[in-house]
Amino acid sequence: MRLAEVLDEHVVVVGQSWPNFEATIQGLLDVLVQASRLPADSVSITLEQVCQRERQSSTAMLDIGVSIPHVRTDAIDGIACALAVAPRAVYEVAFGLPISIVALVVSSVTLATEHLQFLSSLSLVLQSERCRSELKRASTAAEVLTVLQSFDGQGGALL
């Protein structure tokens, strides 16, 4: 699976901020619904699942300002991802620490291996300081996608 198969301009949000983690996830779930990647009737349960997962173990990498919340659900058949990038913060965690890049990943319950591979690959891309810096400077979804593709394994293959 290639990054471009999961992310496009319809699921990338640039410059938006939310007051907290839950509002961020709600906003990104709404983006997935608007892009026809997630059924509208599954938003409430998916929000609860993501928040519950986050309470068990945070997906925020505070030292680099990245969060990759994720959940496996029977609401979809494949893998969906919504990405938010902001120069300062998409949301702030405790003590005002900024999270500037959030990638919400929603995968089918039947894709356990693919889910983990996608998370691992996405995490590796977002751990690049240069990539994060370029993402935060991007002003459009198209620019974000170009940056990600340039850092995505030199050819776009995530899986």
Explain this structure to me?
The chain is an alpha/beta fold and 159 residues long. It has one domain: Mannitol-specific EII, Chain A, CATH 3.40.930.10. The chain contains 6 helices and 8 strands. The strands form 2 sheets. Strands 1, 2, 3, 4, 5 and 8 form a 6-stranded mixed β-sheet that branches. A two-stranded antiparallel sheet has the order 6-7. It is globular, with a radius of gyration of 14 Å.
Strand and helix layout:
Layout lengths: L2 H4 L5 E3 L6 H14 L8 H14 L3 E2 L4 E2 L2 E4 L5 E7 L5 E2 L5 E2 L1 E8 L3 H15 L2 H9 L3 H11 L8
Parallel strand pairs: 1-5, 3-8, 4-8
Antiparallel strand pairs: 2-3, 5-8, 6-7
Helix pairs in contact: 2-3, 5-6
Primary descriptors:
159 residues, alpha/beta, Mannitol-specific EII, Chain A, 6-stranded mixed β-sheet, two-stranded antiparallel ribbon, 6 helices, 42% helix, 19% strand
Assembly level: single chain
Radius of gyration: 14 Å
Q: In the CATH hierarchy, what is the superfamily? A: Mannitol-specific EII, Chain A
Count the DSSP helices. Answer: 6
Order of helices and strands: HEHHEEEEEEEHHH
Shape, per Cα inertia axes? globular
Sheet with the most strands, sense and barrel status: 6 strands, mixed
Q: For the record, give the distance between the C-alpha atoms at the N and C termini, rounded to a whole number.
A: 5 Å
Unreliable residue stretches: 154-159
Helicity, in percent? 40-55%
CATH fold topology: Mannitol-specific EII, Chain A
Please state the structural category: alpha/beta
